[in-house]
Amino acid sequence: MDLKLSGKVAIVTGASRGIGRAIAQTLSAEGMKLTLAARSKDQLDELAKSLKTDCLVQAVDLRAPETAAAVVEATIRTFGAIDLLVNNAGATKRGDFFELTDADWEDGFALKFFGGMRLSRAAWTSLAKSKGTIVNIIGVGGRTGNADFTIGGSVNAAGRLLTKALADRGVKDGVRVNAINPGFIKTERLTVRVKSFAEEHKLPMAEAESQLATATGVSRFGEPSEVAAAVAFLASPVCGFCHGALLDIDGGQTRTL
């Protein structure tokens, strides 16, 4: 299927590894020019060299208030337009609620929520001109509370509401806004959890992964490429009537309405 993305311009945050890297690879394969944003310049440079389309590397910390506008300005200066913003950057600290500090909470919101919000605000005028799209990568933790994921769940819930609110504004301005809620995806972060489980229970990695997936209520863990494929589809005019959607890609982990 031709997703009609060739020649268009995307900003992908958290692009240096995991889901963000897979998104960048998929969008490049569809012919999109890319601004790749993350803190690790070496990883971004290596990724950019491996892609077939033009890339602008932005090794930045999106927690800083001024960074979002700078990334948008650099993208427009380099490519002339923005057609897609993928807000993927952000990780939050797990742990006992009573042991998490104010600084932990502030850091959790600073990148994933405020970074994405500021980028959306900074890119909005350009996206309106191009009749473009925002795809927020959030997470299923915003739908189901978990005692050890109070920061991440709260940030994700806020991201879900922001997606709906921006989609409401987008009807007027011609900007489509959707979100994806990944479940357990095979990233470095998940690999660390599987390895710890394997060592604790003296299991081979494959068996540890299988047991953890079963405990989560799914048949297997997802691949970053599966999330990336959904991003490309949501960004495409082929999916032009999809607006304000919150898409769970979690292997059936979330069973609530």
Question: Can you walk through the features of this model?
Answer:
With about 260 residues, the protein is of the alpha/beta class. It has 2 domains: about 200 residues, Rossmann fold, CATH 3.40.50; about 35 residues, no CATH class. Helices cover about 50% and strands about 15% of the residues. The chain contains 8 helices and 7 strands. A 7-stranded parallel sheet has the order 3-2-1-4-5-6-7, with helices on both faces. α5 links the parallel β5 and β6. α1 crosses α8 and α4 packs parallel to α5. The mean pLDDT is about 95.
Secondary structure blueprint with pairings:
Layout: E1 9-13, H1 18-29, E2 33-38, H2 41-50, E3 55-59, H3 67-79, E4 84-87, H4 102-130, E5 133-137, H5 150-173, E6 176-182, H6 188-201, H7 205-216, H8 224-235, E7 246-249
Parallel strand pairs: 1-2, 1-4, 2-3, 4-5, 5-6, 6-7
